[in-house]
Amino acid sequence: MFRDAALIAGKDLRIELRSKVTTQQVAPFAALVIILFGIALDPDRGILTRASGGLFWIAVLFCALLAIQRAFTIEAADGGRDALRLSGLDPAGIFLGKAAAIAAELVVLEAVLAAGVIIIYGTDVSSPLLLFVATVAATAGLAFAGTLYGVLAAGLRVRETLLPILLLPVLTPVLIGATRSFDAALGGVASDGWPWCGLLLVFALLYLVFGAVAFGTLLEES
């Protein structure tokens, strides 16, 4: 399973490195979102600083939708999805590989967004450990849930519009938990953020287990 996951993740990441869609299109979009938030709220720097965690994760969600759609669009060309079904690879391995590639792309985008938040919003980090754990847990949750719903919508003609409708309500716990954790890590009380990190970890584990079990059936039906 892990060998198959490494093969799928390597394939998707090589495609992204060659196409440079993440670095040349999605990353500039992410930076633009942060800049526009800053322009909209700049008259009141206090609100901008207090809202930086929520604005950061809203921007991450927008970028995650683009990354997830891209991950399954590349399988649609030249019968790629049929080849994936017939490859004999472990469906759980395909799920983990897809999720790992999406998570790696999100980490790059989150680094761009974090730099923008610190520079433009003037945010100070008071608890780096909480910030790191929350980011890892939230990114894993986004990748696992996104991979599961991405394959669910992949076979539909309206997948570009259906995926956000399916996925965004499901990701509400991630948005809430990550925002509260970031608020605690960025100038708040760190102890207030750890329970929200627990929520993020539970969410990620649930979708890891459910995705590993159900991905094969969803891939066959897509």
Q: Briefly note the structural class of the backbone.
A: mainly alpha
Which descriptor suits the 3D outline?
globular
How far is the first residue's CA from the last residue's CA?
A: 21 Å
Beta strand %: under 5%
Number of strand segments? 0
User: What's the overall average pLDDT, rounded?
Assistant: 83
The major β-sheet equals:
none
Characterise this structure.
The protein has 222 residues and is mainly alpha-helical. It has one domain (2-221). It has helices at 2-19, 21-41, 45-50, 52-73, 80-86, 91-121, 128-154, 159-170, 172-185, 194-221. Helix 1 (2-19) crosses helix 6 (91-121), helix 7 (128-154) runs antiparallel to helix 9 and helix 7 (128-154) runs parallel beside helix 10 (194-221). The mean pLDDT is 83.
Give the key terms.
mainly alpha; 10 helices; 222 residues; globular
Task: Describe the SSE topology.
Layout (H helix, E strand, L loop, with lengths): L1 H18 L1 H21 L3 H6 L1 H22 L6 H7 L4 H31 L6 H27 L4 H12 L1 H14 L8 H28 L1
Helix pairs in contact: 1-6, 2-4, 2-6, 4-6, 4-7, 4-9, 6-7, 6-10, 7-8, 7-9, 7-10, 9-10
